[in-house]
Amino acid sequence: MENCKRLYADTLAFYRRELSGPVFTAGWAFAGIVVLGFAFSLLSPTRADAVIAYYAQMLGQSGVADEGGNIQFFALLINNLVAMALSLVYGLIPFLRLPALTLGTNGAILGLFAGYYMRQNISLLKYLLGILPHGIFELTALILSAAMGLYLCSTVTNALRKKQTGVLRPALHRCCQILYLWVLPLLFIAALVETYITPILFNLV
């Protein structure tokens, strides 16, 4: 128990020291992209609908939902966990800041769907009930993972520029600990809510 408490304390200290800034930046960037996606959906509905249709096709091929459109808990959890872990992997590639792509893609999709609902005169409450219950946990995990990936990218880039050694391994170790201790529980809760609670709430309106 003491080791567990110490580990959580260490990851929290690392978050406050190294990740709080990137998380803040990533959060605001995500919100901005959602707004841009929403505006694009209203201004260019044909193109927006094409993107939504492509996303729906990709989702259908991912195995997250069965043939009846019902979310599969474990498939959803594994799919989301792999996506978050890839943010860390992408962060190991210097200069390109690839983890921002995951953040941008998800933010754009949320904005496009919001615009679609408005254009179809579907209740905004219905949209929020379909997103917020699980999104509180899943989007927190997404922003945190993207921030860690961007932090790792900056660490690798600065190490190459300054010819430093021994800085990547401890940073990656801490990020993997946060992925396991923080992100995984968030995704587990999000998958439970999205599988068993969100459909009920969505159908209430």
Task: Give a description of the structure.
Helix 5 runs antiparallel to helix 6 (168-202). The chain is mainly α and 205 residues long. The chain is built from six helices and no strands. The chain starts with a helix and ends with a helix. It is globular. The chain has helices at residues 2-43, 45-61, 73-91, 99-119, 124-162, 168-202.
Mean model confidence by pLDDT: 92
Envelope shape: globular
Strand percentage lies at under 5%
Low-pLDDT ranges: none
Rg for CA atoms: 18 Å
Oligomer: single chain
User: What is the N-to-C succession of helices and strands?
Assistant: HHHHHH
Distance between the ends = 45 Å
Q: Please, how many helices?
A: 6
Largest sheet: none
Going by helix content, strand content and strand pairing, the class is: mainly alpha
Number of strands: 0
Helix % is: over 70%
Short overview:
It is built from six helices and no strands. The chain is an all-alpha fold and 205 residues long.
Write the layout of secondary structure elements.
Blueprint: H1 2-43, H2 45-61, H3 73-91, H4 99-119, H5 124-162, H6 168-202
Helix pairs in contact: 1-2, 1-4, 1-5, 2-4, 3-5, 3-6, 4-5, 5-6
Give structural attributes.
205 residues; mainly alpha; 84% helix
